[in-house]
Specification:
seven-stranded antiparallel β-sheet, Barnase, Chain D, 9 helices, about 30% strand, 19 strands, globular, alpha+beta, about 400 residues, single chain
Length: about 400
Amino acid sequence: MRSEEVAAWGREFPVRYLVVREDEDGDPEELWARCADVEGLFVDRPPLPREVLTLRGCAADSALARAVTGVDGEPVRLLGVVGLTIRPGDSAVWGPVQFWDLEETAVLAHRPTPGEPGRVDIVLGAGVREDRECYGRKPSSGPVEIEVWAESLDPLGPVAECRAIDGLFGERRELPDEPVQLLGCEAAEPLLDRLRGGPGGDAGEIWLSALDRNGRTMTGRRLDLSTVTARPSVFGGTLIDVIVTGGLDPYDRPPRAARAVREVWFEGVPSTPNQWAGFDAEGRSEWLDLTHVGRYDPQAGRSGGTYHLDGRHATDRKGVLLALGEALLGPGANYGRCLDSVQDYLCGGPEVVPPFTLVWHDAEIARGALAGDVLHHRGESYFDAIVELLQEYRVTVQLR
């Protein structure tokens, strides 16, 4: 089922959202509702409560340990966003892989791991964003493998592995939940059955998909319809408004700045360069999330040619990536949403592959704006890192 096939309903206002059930492959399979709009979706997240965690048994020669202990220079104290990937340590034991985020992470202390020469314990202060799929449980009753990721140290791979984490697992205070209101809904039978108190069929994974004016799916969020009520719609007629309580994690909702970005994209994939330039960091992040590269094929792509990057608005990481995507693939496209995926695309896949020439106009704007954004594993700024990455993969970069 394609969203364009079910997005029309013959009313004077367009369908902006679909509620759909996805199949096992993540493709839309069953329509649950067409909706004119949504309220309560865009919220500015409250700050995460600060917690103290201890990474036990990190190798002393890992990038994380070397950075926080100051082996390679001044000790690093602020790590920004840190990702944790946790999986069972015994391949014979089944257990879910968990993905956690630590936000605004600060190094509080470090010390040698008792009884384990060559390893250190690192104490962190951070806001913990829980893997909601596992509800605070360990992935298995046995040992676990823990990878630590920190883009501020190395955007291309994990910066450490540790033996255990103190303070991660356990109950956390539930945040206040603002209901999501699906306005002007034309509900299909599975949703009507759910509203009548029935199971609503084989629900599987239900998604709230945001559409553009042409019925194309721009983006989506997983939606829990366990607690739903309905009322006659403010749009009138036979439509209903559906109120979903507890259906979206407060930390998984787009910020208010994203709404203005989606209004631009609602008219279709942007065709004019630099339409993202006037948005703040959150708006640029949303814009980058909405961009696409098309079908990925390692054998696809053409090499050669000269491309021009407009660097006037490349004042942060997202701005650099957006300007790069527009230079190589045009408005509405990206050539990577982080350095890691830029590297992937340089290896083949999108329409343009090395070798080619990139003329970066007004490069000093990005160089100056990102001078303090240092990737500690490389000892250089984000600007220098992306230039060197391009050059490493046979891109001739001309800074103007």
